[in-house]
Amino acid sequence: MANDWRRIYEALFVKKSAIVGKGLYTRARIPKRAKIGEFGGERIGLREAARRARSRKIIAIVELDRFAYDASVGDNAFRWINHSCEPNTFMRCTPTRAEFYALRAIAPGEELTTDYVESQHDGKLPCRCGARGCRGFI
Predict the structure, then answer these.
(1) CATH code, domain with 98
(2) pTM for the full model?
(3) 20 to 30 Å CA-CA from 74: which of 10, 53, 61, 88?
(4) Which pairs count as long-range contacts for 116-119, CB under 8 Å and 24+ apart, including other chains?
(5) Is residue 25 very low, low, confident or very high in pLDDT (cuts 50, 70, 90)?
(6) Residue 133 lies in a domain
(7) Contact present, 16 and 23 (Cβ < 8 Å)
(8) Sign, CA torsion 6/109/13/59
């Protein structure tokens, strides 16, 4: 059971997204509440994360309690997960990990999305998720 998420993670792939840029998709059915994987990348300090975020148009950084992960360094698939106001995944953060889980069953070929909630965009980036309940900004 513990290694099921690795099988799910291995079924992920990146392709052009209908939302924006590239997106993260799955080749396999993902059951509701299943762990999909963990956000990764270069481990950096929080001050460095803020500095990098200010200088980038596309931000692939998750801040945890005492450090952050910059997924633009390395090959972590979650770098490509797009925001949606009606997502099919959620991110659970602990002091040292950012893990993704399915909010509902996800079909093969479906794009994985998550609600960024708080982000470096401070509610100023127009949202392009297309969801019926779209808030308009990230």
Answers:
(1) 2.170.270.10
(2) 0.87
(3) 88
(4) 116/83, 119/59, 119/83
(5) very high
(6) no
(7) yes
(8) negative
- Report the pLDDT value the prediction gives residue 1, as an integer from 0 to 100: 46
Domain membership of residue 32 as a residue range:
4-114
Closest by alpha carbon to 59, among 51, 15, 129? 51
- Number of domains into which the chain is organized: 1
The answer to whether residue 101 scores a pLDDT higher than 50 is: yes
Flag whether 102 is in a domain: yes
Is 101 within the bounds of a domain? yes
Mean pLDDT of 106-116: 95
Residues 63, 84, 34, 60: is their CA dihedral positive or negative?
Answer: negative
The answer to whether residue 124 sits within a structural domain is: no
- Residue 98 has what DSSP assignment? E
DSSP letter string, 25-93: EESS-B-TT-EEEE--SEEE-HHHHHHHHHT-SS--EEE-SS-EEETTSS--GGGGPEE-SS-SEEEEE
128: how many CB neighbours lie within 10 A of its CB?
A: 15
CA distance 65 to 51: 17
Q: Token pair of 61, please?
A: 């950084």
